[in-house]
Predict the 3D structure of the following.
Amino acid sequence: MQTLPLFDFPEDLSVSPPPAPAVTGDASARQRELGQYMTPMWVAESLVQRHFAELDANDCVFELTCGTGAFLSAIPPHVEALGVEIDPELADIARANSGRRVITGDFRQVKFDLRPSAILGNPRSA
Ligand SMILES: C[S@@+](CC[C@H](N)C(=O)[O-])C[C@H]1O[C@@H](n2cnc3c(N)ncnc32)[C@H](O)[C@@H]1O
């Protein structure tokens, strides 16, 4: 039986990781409370390439808990994408990393002016 790899692992696993804010006492509590564990850029890129390869200019992708914006950055530039992030510091980083519009807020309360054709991401698990 042939075993297929789940991801196309890059040789250099250190490529373009999203910068994470410094961890201080308060920041570490907030990270735990909000489940702030970022997806490495190469994982986001692999998932988008493998499972969202058919996205085109008619699509609009939402990343509702976008963190530092790995998935927003991995979405091809010709595809519209919108992020939401509850932590203002991370929302700023996601904007800078991805160049995408990122709404600062709780995705459960945000009023959207767009309709998504796809929603992706790595949400908070607890
Ligand atoms: C597991 S991290 C994943 C971040 C990003 N999706 C990634 O894959 O790198 C979950 C993110 O959701 C944010 N978050 C938690 N609750 C949220 C909420 N109600 N609305 C928006 N963002 C939220 C956290 O601040 C954190 O950045």
In short: The CA atoms of residues 6 and 46 lie 9 Å apart. Residues 34-39, 65-67, 70-71, 84-87, 90, 106-108, 121-124 surround S-adenosylmethionine (CB under 6 Å). The two ends are 37 Å apart (CA to CA).
